Backbone:
């Protein structure tokens, strides 16, 4: 079975960890949110792509679910001592990846090509695919003005009121041919339990994605446990979109192309046709169990 995931943040990588126990990496493709990417400190940050590369290469710090395990922060600390405004901490090895990607992009490589090259160097055999090759950014309009999502989430710790969420770009985002080909060739597509506003919706906004989803069996997994996300500012962001910050709100964004919706067993309300499993993936065994349950449920879909 070949599966393509739509992923961003940390929720979907936790689910993918479980699927790796029952599938070969070569049979897993991941279309990744790139709307949180940015050029910073002279290099190119692509946090959601990096989380997946580190996961598949065995380097990921799974205590934090970002960065490289055992990484040091010598460069970051020295930048601070030089008086630089370093609000986003990067480990030394993590920074090296960003520098290498920045160099590849400056040489004219697309983000897809740069990602493929970095995956090759890191020994990743899964298919990690940026959602698009043009720059698109999730910005947050606050009382302090329009700021990058990373600044909102990391620098301000989401402790600043949201007036509007704005996706900015010079070229309307179009899904890459590689991403669309992956969807076409997959037996199943899984919209992972990532932030619906900043992780999944940017992928859905890429031209070609939703139409492709309508042509394949799709499972969507809610990122909410009851009325609360596992982590991150999903509640504040959903509220800013005037969408309920719960599984029903997530389902409202996905129902037009979703064949099976997965809720958590702790959800007090049940969405018609949805299935409830334990989606609070506190360890690898729970992730594997959820993956196995999803496969059992979708046998009839494929």
Residues:
């Amino acid at each position: 079975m070949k599966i393509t995931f739509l992923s961003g943040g940390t929720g979907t990588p936790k689910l993918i960890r479980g699927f790796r126990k029952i599938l070969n990496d070569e049979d897993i493709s991941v279309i990744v949110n790139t709307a949180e990417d940015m050029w910073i400190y002279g290099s190119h940050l692509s946090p959601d792509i990096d989380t997946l590369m580190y996961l598949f290469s065995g380097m990921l710090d799974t205590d934090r679910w970002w960065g490289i395990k055992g990484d040091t922060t010598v460069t970051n600390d020295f930048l601070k001592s030089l008086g630089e405004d370093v609000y986003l901490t990067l480990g030394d090895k993590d920074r090296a990846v960003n520098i290498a990607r920045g160099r590849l992009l400056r040489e004219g490589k697309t983000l897809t090509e740069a990602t493929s090259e970095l995956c090759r160097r890191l020994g990743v055999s899964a298919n990690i695919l940026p959602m698009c090759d043009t720059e698109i950014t999730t910005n947050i309009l606050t009382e302090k003005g329009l700021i990058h999502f990373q600044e909102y989430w990391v620098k301000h710790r989401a402790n600043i009121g949201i007036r509007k969420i704005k996706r900015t770009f010079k070229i309307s985002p179009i899904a890459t041919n590689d991403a669309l080909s992956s969807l076409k060739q997959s037996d199943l597509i899984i919209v992972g339990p990532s932030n619906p506003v900043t992780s999944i919706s940017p992928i859905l906004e890429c031209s070609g994605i939703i139409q492709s989803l309508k042509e394949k069996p799709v499972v969507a997994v809610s990122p909410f446990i009851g009325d609360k996300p596992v982590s991150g500012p999903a509640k504040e962001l959903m509220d800013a979109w005037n969408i309920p910050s719960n599984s029903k709100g997530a389902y409202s964004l996905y129902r037009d192309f979703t064949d099976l919706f997965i809720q958590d067993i702790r959800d007090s309300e049940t969405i018609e046709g949805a299935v409830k499993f334990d989606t609070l993936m506190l360890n690898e065994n729970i992730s594997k169990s959820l993956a196995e349950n999803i496969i059992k449920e979708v046998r009839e879909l494929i």
Residues 52 and 244 are 29 Å apart (CA to CA). The radius of gyration is 18 Å. The chain has two domains: 3-136+172-298, 137-169.
